[in-house]
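Input/output pair, single chain:
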Amino acid sequence: MHQLLILVAGLVALPIAPPTAEEISRIQDAQRTFFKEHPQGAPQEELTAFFTGLLEGIEPSECSWSQLKQLMGPCSMVPAKRDAAQARLKQLAAEATADGFDAFVYASSMSKEDAPTAAALFGHPGYAAWKQSASPSDRTRLIGRLSSDQFAQAGAEVEELEAWFTPERSAKELAAGVQLVDAIKRLAPDVDQGEQFRLKLLASIVLAKEKASPEEKAALTKLAKKLDNAVSRGEFMDHPAPKLTFTWAQDAAGPVRLATLDDLKGKVVVLDFWATWCGPCVGSIPNVKELRAHYSAEDVAIVGVTSLQGKHYPGGAPPVDCTGDAAKEQALMAEFMKTKGIDWTIAFSEQEVFNPDYGVNGIPHVTILDADGIVRHTDLHPADPMHEKCAKIDALLRKQGKTPPPAPKAPEPAPEAGADGAVIPAIPLVPGAPPSGAVPAVPTVPATPGSPR
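Output:
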């Protein structure tokens, strides 16, 4: 008995080890699997039981910040773990380190009501260390996630960051400046501030190209296009659509005569920028198919715009190399259309699918033109709610004096979660960990919706 007590005492005295990388990976994999198996949510009792078992032996109070930010989502599902994780987060957020600042930003993002002032944010004792280790992209993301009020108080920080983007920087470093232009234009009360920085950054890129290697020069040329186009100059929305030239176009019936957007004048035009390698693009095919079925092709043209990629992704099979063989890639696209039941026009444009003139930084990306070829809506997703897409298109049809088909009904709002075991959304109550290396969002007051992508 005496020996047993000594053994137990020894075990109690052992320190609780923080979770290993393998344990964190196991937890994340199990969580993904659980939510995939419960797409409509799960009863509260089942959720609690699952995450209680999943986190057994995990002690949030022993976690470093890099560990804790990966576990905040799972911990939010178990009251005891959630409380311990939030207490540990508070401790870490007070540290005068780069991780301490990162934790402070994350902790602040959990409370929309208690968003820090710019003085509190940039005056954090760990900010200097974070800034020294942060990349220009990290710093730009931080600026981009400020509220208008916070931005107005961050003049010195913004000015310092603007000055960093000189011709001596690499193309990769200067790319962060393009995002800073967008942030300033969106947040600055003075509309000229963003335009002035755009012109300054463009001049830096032009000077950098003079001494760049051929490979670096190509990257800098792409950056320049992102800064010097209709979108960046404020000449896109409610202006004539930028030029698109098509080298191949086909619908379910066969080849289509489509050389430029002028061939579609008189119709409302839905441009869906996409590619076969893009999972969300292919996943949105049923949404586009539904839209095509809703409208007459005489009134609304739908064009899936892509460009030669050098590879074709048939789905369910390895990609097919089409490097330097446009005819091969186009023929494979025709087969893909039949396989997927695509009954709208697919067209290859001479311009790349990530078209800077249309502000396409990610795909899928939908832009809608009116019958006169004027850009009326952009940066939409083909999987946006059907009634919202139709409302935009119907308004343009009525402007032509046409009567649109009966509008689809908006879906009924989902019932709220109950405390009696009713199904609840499978979304953590506390924001999950941001992607590796990313800067957590800084809360805004009032909160503003983020990008749909």
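The CA atoms of residues 171 and 351 lie 21 Å apart. The two ends are 63 Å apart (CA to CA).
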